[in-house]
Amino acid sequence: MILSPGSTELTLDPAHQPEETPAPNLAELTLEPVHCRPELLDACADLINEQWPRSRASRLHSLGQSSDAFPLCLMLLSPQPTPEAAPIVVGHARLSRVLDRPQSLLVETVVVARALRGRGFGRRLMEGLEVFAQARGFRRLHLTTHDQLQFYAHLGYQLGEPVQGLVFTSRRLPATLLKAFPRAPSSRPPSRASSLTAQTAPRASKGPSLPPPPPLPEPLTTSPSPPAGPPPQSLLETQYQDLRGCPIFWMEKDI
């Protein structure tokens, strides 16, 4: 390395340039929960913060909540050349249970190291998630994306509907209580209790009754009734938005 006097620009000496680190072998990658490898928490936090900057303390706290009871954070690991060295964190994904869907999981925070993108590591991560979820009895994965629709479509994901992930699970909470969370408040005003006193019926007016009105004419053209529910999303347009108001696509896959 050559440092020119009076200059802040560093120039690498071609004769002493470091060799490029070879890409990890896909066949040697492993998928392990974060809470089983606490010594890799810092490296995993750095990987995620490289994509979505956040305070280190907050990121470590979020990763520290990983458990077998879900939410659960998984790391895609590559072994070091020497057995004594710690593995390299190549990717990360978080799995959460889905409210009212006991056989589904919500996939979040999917990220692969920048230097390794476009080499099949994202596919390896997602395929590993499917095997991990299947082994634990789950049959469907849900996720959201802003701009990776084609990537997930190649993996077999299809456009789906929004679901609600559980940020925590506890056996102390009954299912009836959990089911109450996503319900929207009723728009109808509260109904009043029926009066115990009978209402007096209106008296009929005296005199001859009026003839019924003539029927309304039929419309010239009948337009089909609009479909119920929100319009379907497509790979080019969606009606869903994230918390920042950006378009977001919901996708799902049966595994």
From TrEMBL:
The N-acetyltransferase domain covers which part of the protein? Answer: 31-184
Record region (Disordered)? 1-24, 181-236
Record-linked Gene3D superfamilies: 3.40.630.30
Q: Which CDD domains match?
A: NAT_SF
User: Which keywords annotate this record?
Assistant: Acyltransferase, Cytoplasm, Transferase
Comp. bias (Low complexity): 182-195
Q: Which InterPro entries match?
A: Acyl_CoA_acyltransferase, GNAT_dom, NAA80
Q: Where does the source fall among the domains of life?
A: Eukaryota
**GO cellular component terms attached to this protein's record:** cytosol
Q: Which is a Pfam family this sequence falls into?
A: Acetyltransf_1
Q: Where is the composition biased (Pro residues)?
A: 209-233
What's a single GO MF annotation on this record?
A: N-acetyltransferase activity
Q: SUPFAM superfamilies in the record, alphabetically?
A: Acyl-CoA N-acyltransferases (Nat)
Instruction: State its location(s).
Output: Cytoplasm, Cytosol
* Chemical reaction(s) catalysed: N-terminal L-glutamyl-L-glutamyl-L-glutamyl-[protein] + acetyl-CoA = N-terminal N-acetyl-L-glutamyl-L-glutamyl-L-glutamyl-[protein] + CoA + H(+); N-terminal L-aspartyl-L-aspartyl-L-aspartyl-[protein] + acetyl-CoA = N-terminal N-acetyl-L-aspartyl-L-aspartyl-L-aspartyl-[protein] + CoA + H(+)
**Segments of skewed composition (Polar residues):** 1-10
Homology family? Belongs to the acetyltransferase family.
Q: What biological function has been recorded for the protein in this entry?
A: N-alpha-acetyltransferase that specifically mediates the acetylation of the acidic amino terminus of processed forms of beta- and gamma-actin (ACTB and ACTG, respectively). N-terminal acetylation of processed beta- and gamma-actin regulates actin filament depolymerization and elongation. In vivo, preferentially displays N-terminal acetyltransferase activity towards acid N-terminal sequences starting with Asp-Asp-Asp and Glu-Glu-Glu. In vitro, shows high activity towards Met-Asp-Glu-Leu and Met-Asp-Asp-Asp. May act as a tumor suppressor.
* Name of the featured protein: N-alpha-acetyltransferase 80
User: What gene is this protein a product of?
Assistant: NAA80
